[in-house]
Sequence to fold (270 residues):
Amino acid sequence: MDLLALFFKTILFRPYVFAFLAAFLFAAIKLIGWPRTWRFWLISWGTAFVCEFSSTRNGIPFGWYHYNGSTVGQELYFSNIPFMDSISFSFLLYAAYTLTLCFFLPICPSSDRSRSWLTGLRFDRATRTGWAVLLVTALFYACIDMVIDPVALRGDRWFLGKIYYYPDPGTHFGVPLANYAGWAVVGLISLSIYFRFDRGIPEPAFPADHSVTTRLLLGVGLYYGVLAFNLGVTFWIGESLLGMTGLLMYVPVTALLLLRLLKPLEPGNP
Fold:
């Protein structure tokens, strides 16, 4: 009963994290179905927890950092790791994965004939479990943490609270570069394991030539939702340089995404 009560206190304490988690579950089930969704969540959460457990003890793979335990009793912890922190890795990885798929999935043969203003993308198994998707997802995964981690490190200036610190502050607004390398490692390990399961599970129910663009956009919306939330907090606490750095980093990504997904207007159409 104490554990259950603490879990509900965690939800009330970090409602925005659980809102993002709920969005992840909804978006993932829509695209990849429940059998893949629970595997994706379990693999990514387990990998992240092991890596955080390791880094807070030996500095691998994120570099040295420590949770100070300031919220013990207010939210759920597994060992010395806040539960809400480790589950964030899962929905952020899924969001980065769907963003990557928008760039690499093949275009449906019927896309040119469709009246939709979106380019139709086919959920091709070989592409979605390939090396290009693996590596670019890890890159987008590390990039979003370059927005999240510096503002989280300043949690004492907003409602997150000061929950962790780096004994040796790094060069990127106080965050060591090793931290971002660690995020890429978590992404690479998690997806490599998940891809092995994905190849062995029957395909989702929709037809092979069916466009999944709108389903992908649910995950992309999650990615940009987390990005907007963290940039909003960054500017709110007065960290304008940090906020502009994060904002400008995503201008080329967003432009390329729009070029990939939006169909050009046909001649003679407004």
